[in-house]
Amino acid sequence: MSDEIVAVVAPIAMYWITSCLYAILGRQEYRLHSTEEEEMKNLVPKREVIRVVLLQHLTQAAIAFAVFTVRRDGGGAAASTGAAPAIIVHSWQFMVAMAVFDTWQYFWHRLLHSNRFLYRHVHSCNHRLYNHPAESLVLDTAGGALALAVSGMSPWTSACFFSFATVKAIDDHSGMLLPGNPLHLVFANNTAYHDFHHQLRGAGCNYAQPFFVSWDRLMGTYVSVAIVRASHGGLEVVPAKRRTTRETTSAPA
């Protein structure tokens, strides 16, 4: 199997593996929303979600193959390593890709909220259950292609990057705070942070995704969150300044 095929297939496989794992681990005490609330808000049938996901993955695979083909035919392999050790080069490319992807996603995400037409006809799908195909194409696929082109990642590095980004995105949208989750310990932009954005009171803030909160802080759209015990037995995300004397858990830094 060629490196390019691994780079294309790995993130898609990681999506289905991680999604199944979260479905298995979804105990009520770890959830930010009760089962009843999720069923009430998830208006799109699961069959339709699966259809949209498969369409997105086919589009993602086709564009990824095209990008790798153009790079290979044009001699545009990964950026020259020079005298630097490979681990330093790959780590630098990984960080560049994270910065590019975050920047692309923040400003497109904010535009999708500020433009009424785009929100009503495209982005509102994300707040009901899953991305509109057009949003997935622009935010995820095009943003990923840009991150790949700018960073100069090799196929193997891009396989690691996009697999990691996939796991991160699933966790951010899972609505679950699993104990000991390393993503919540390392990233301030995590499940609780993004869950607040999906609340009515948080729709105008916390746009940043999927890695850092830098653009929210720079653009004045950052709201810190706290995690409290909810009446349904699980957890609830509230603005940090509204933390009450109810039993609380520590919000990830």
Automatic annotation (TrEMBL):
The reaction(s) this protein catalyses: a long-chain fatty aldehyde + 2 NADPH + O2 + H(+) = a long-chain alkane + formate + 2 NADP(+) + H2O
Molecular function via GO: aldehyde oxygenase (deformylating) activity; iron ion binding; oxidoreductase activity
Membrane topology: Multi-pass membrane protein
BP terms from Gene Ontology: lipid biosynthetic process
EC number: 4.1.99.5
Cellular component terms (Gene Ontology): endoplasmic reticulum membrane
Transmembrane among keywords: yes
Residue intervals of the Fatty acid hydroxylase domain: 94-221
Lyase found in the keyword field: yes
Alphabetical keyword list: Endoplasmic reticulum, Lyase, Membrane, NADP, Transmembrane, Transmembrane helix
Segments passing through the bilayer: 6-25, 49-70, 82-101
Localization: Endoplasmic reticulum membrane
Primary location: endoplasmic reticulum
Family label: Belongs to the sterol desaturase family.
Protein name per Swiss-Prot or TrEMBL: aldehyde oxygenase (deformylating)
Organism in which the protein naturally occurs: Sorghum bicolor
